[in-house]
Amino acid sequence: MESSEEKVVAVIMVGGPTKGTRFRPLSLNIPKPLFPLAGQPMVHHPISACKRIPNLAHIYLIGFYEEREFALYVSSISNELKVPVRYLKEDKPHGSAGGLYNFRDLIMEDSPSHIFLLNCDVCCSFPLPEMLDAQKSYGGMGTILVIKVSVESAYQFGELVADPVTKELLHYTEKPETFVSDLINCGVYIFTPDIFTAIQGVSTQRKDRANLRRLSSFEALQSATRSIPSSFVRLDQDILSPLAGKKQLFTYETKDFWEQIKTPGMSLKCSALYLAQFRFTSPHLLASGDGVKSANIVGDVYVHPSAKIHPTAKIGPNVSISANARIGAGARLISCIILDDVEIKENAVVLHAIVGWKSSVGKWSRAQASGDYNAKLGVTILGEAVSVEDEVVVINSIVLPNKTLNASVQEEIIL
Q1: What b/e sequence results for 368-379 when a residue is b if at least 16 CB atoms lie within 10 Å of its CB, and e otherwise?
Q2: Residue 410 CA: distances (Å) to CA of 272, 292, 396, 399, 414
Q3: Are strands 183-191 and 142-148 parallel, antiparallel or unpaired?
Q4: If the chain, 415 residues long, is cut into consecutive pieces of 10 residues, what is the mean pLDDT of each piece?
Q5: Distance of alpha carbon 391 from its chain centroid, rounded?
Q6: What CA–CA distance (Å, rounded) separates 160 from 235?
Q7: pTM, whole model, 2 decimals?
């Protein structure tokens, strides 16, 4: 009989400064997991989803960032959610499964019956309680969150084949060269503690192979350049692929939204998805206003309580405004993220753009883009402390920190 008091822990992989290079210039100022989407740090969305898991004992964040970079956030979120959250720094790359195994003693301290493993750069509705129920009904070692995507985009992800009735994972391949399936891995998992035995098995096999190679000097020369450390274990290639079709792994399909947050452009799209989700999960976080006593708010908009917006400004849809921002009279903001201490002056327009910390957009100026989230310059990005002077237009451009623009630019990266 399963005890109703079985504990569950959650582990969120947050990566490190060398991993977030595609997120520059925004990640020059702040660890990517702490960049705000819909007014909340990126990592906050999976963490708050974990709060819905019954009998949640602990949340661990694993990454390569310095502990001091997460200390303040971890402390405040632990108090807010009344769940212990702890940041664990990896000493060296261990791979997605090896990183989990590296901290197995800590993770198993609460003797959990199940362990959730989430990736921080995933944007979805995180149906975690439903995955827990599914995993309990399937049995086996683990359950993977999956989603159907277009045939054209499937190759970018881990493709898999599942039994349509039992939902067992039958085949898994990471970023295949030829089409396998339109079902992809969402990067959200639930495992039993047996996962640690599986990871240890891969590690032991690798050590044995390395020992065998040493016996043959020719083989040693051949493999010296390409051998993988025994402690480096990848979840997809080393665990999911070999265990597929062995009645160990199962799938849970989400019909909801799902995206990967690899670039600043995608962060704007994901901010919109989270704002839309707030309608159902956190309506109190969405702003409202009719343009009389307060600004005219259209669609889903988040405004930090300390931000000041002129009543004649029009804001939305898909706008997130951070702390101490100042929005002037007649300004128009659509599909944008406005970060801390930004000033948008009178009659300026910001459209499909991210305006960095302490930046300003002058009177009658525009910072705008096409809104193609996948294109390199599909979203205009102003880094920290960028000043766009009055009557200047910035279109489809990326501006690195501490620049002053006194002339209009289009489709440029300004270093």
Answers
A1: bbebebeeebbb
A2: 25, 36, 6, 11, 10
A3: antiparallel
A4: 73 81 81 94 96 95 92 93 93 86 93 96 96 95 92 76 92 75 91 93 74 54 56 86 91 94 92 96 91 91 97 96 98 98 98 97 98 90 96 96 96 92
A5: 36
A6: 14
A7: 0.90
